[in-house]
Amino acid sequence: MNYDLSEIQKEALLELLNIGVNESTNILSEILNVEIDLQIPSIKIISADKLIEELQEVGKENYSAVNMEFRNSFSGVSQLVFSQDSANKLVDVFTRQVLGNGDFDEIKAGALIEIGNIILNAILATFSNALEHEFQFYVPVFFENYKKEFFEQREKYIGEVVLLGKTLFNIEQYHISGDIILYFNIKSFNYFVNLIDQYVKKIS
Amino acid sequence: MSKDKKILIVDDSVFARMAIKKIISKKFTSISEASSGSEAIELLKNEKFDCLLVDYLMPGINGITTIKIIREMGLTTPIIVISANQQKTILDKFFELGVVAVLKKQVSEDELLNAIDKAIGGGA
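Structure tokens for the assembled complex are given below, as produced in the milestone run.
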């Protein structure tokens, strides 16, 4: 099976990812009252083994993550990954802005799930609206120790090919940074490519 | 709107340029493209445009730096920013540089053509 994308399909996907991550940071920036910098997103098609390697590069020791799965005719995972230091700072800013206090440990997971929910929903909604395809979203899940817990579940991902989209966000004011990662299981890749083609046809 | 006005699209995404071009080609025939801020600046050294459509997040120099350089070159060409990034602090920086409008990707046909109409009608 050929898993290559044409240049225009790649460009269309990149543009959707760009719009989606910007949409999510627009919302988060308003909530936190801070400016959020984004790197230009990248996408690639890789095997699940490579995905593990890629994610290992992102998730060093002491990294936390929020995962949000989506399913329908194709499925995948959108994910926010940050160092525990960045996660702690992010929760601190978020709770001060939203709740007016910072009873930190008790609400840490809840706050990060809510941040993940805002960011990942905005990205997936961008894809869903542009591709005119409804996703079934699952409740976000928080991984305190991303590396350990995620890689314990790696069997789930082995043997598949995935489309990986990635970008880095940075909140300079608070020295917070993290990765936004989106991967689609390739089982439904052809269907996904078909949607992209329809989208390209509509726009260009 | 005069059909012979010259428009320059500055966006690193070929897909975004295609989408913008599809809309504005309904009203304009003279459309140029630059895939980076630096490329746009080089073009502007030798060619005059009536309106620039500039993205924010691009490799190399971003939209804000690109517009700063264009203004430092003494060019008062009306500029419309088309960006997915709508953070208030970013928008403030664009408006401080005198852009006519900041439109959100993906921009609608009416919104874009109206903004160009306004820019060309009131621009230098």
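The two ends of chain B are 15 Å apart (CA to CA). Chain B has one domain: 6-122. Further analysis is deferred to the final report.
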